Amino acid sequence: MTTNGGFQPVFCTIVPPHVLDRLARNEDPALSGPARRSLEHDAYQRTKRRLTTVIGAPSVAPPTGAAADQPHRTVYDAEHTQDLPGTKVREEGSDPGSDATVNRAYAGLGATFELYLKAYGRRSIDGDGMPLDATVHFGENYDNAFWNGEQMVFGDGDNEIFLDFTIPVDVIGHELTHGVTQHTANLTYFGQSGALNESLSDVFGSLIKQYTLGQTAAEADWLIGAGLLAPRVTGTALRSMKAPGTAYDDDVLGKDPQPAKMEDYVRTGRDNGGVHINSGIPNHAFYLAATALGGYAWEKAGQIWYDVLTGGRLKEDALFADFATLTVRAARERYGAGDELQAVQKAWEQVGVRTL
Question: What is the pTM (predicted TM-score) of this model?
Fold first, then answer.
């Protein structure tokens, strides 16, 4: 599937830059050291991503004769270097090994593939059976996970603030969904369109977690990255879709800055115009729509959001109001003027986003 005008040079991490920036200024070298190295790693990978966009990324196709409706997973070990992809340690169909990080990465790739296939009929990230590659044990105490346009990469964390980044399956789903967005709407990674890019990854990351656990919208915790924060941190996750701004309130990390409504929209030049901060607004809208409809969130609310993401009408520089309007349209087209339409309309109204 092609994108709207070619791939954007997007390098997407699960931990926002403003969090690592704060840690990098800490007086304790056990906290500042890993954060500074992580920021340096990210800067290098971001530059590399831009160059890849200019010269073109290598084409990645399924193995010859492979079925597009089956995952093709390969997990590599960087052995604490920055060399990608690293040494192959597990491939599709092989038995679990002794490295729990490798096994979690493999399982998370499979869970993401399964949700997209079973719920939406999508065959992998690009819709055409693209192999799913992941590298674990990247860098020294690397405090992040990212999608670089071609593969997933996971750090081990510093064990002071962050634990192993393969622990939350929604982190894996979040980053791989950046790949889905790359191959569909290709949302520009800045301002409101960038926040939509991040929000869509949170939405489908959460749905992958809920699908894996067999949870209804009412049963789900709606947290992104639960289990990632070390015991010393006062917090539950990186973000909360149910209650943006409440995921953590810690003397080292500070307070979760996400707004839940447009009246609290954060205007900033940092983090590509606040893409990880203002994503709380569309995140909360999805939570409200999904819980109003009840049942399994991937079935109706998720279907509506997926229809918009992949429908070809969403512009690369879309604003929240543009996306909201398309979700209302998608709800009407798929379900008519019933509960689904009303739930979507009310959700956006509650977060202060007008539909056109």
Answer: 0.92
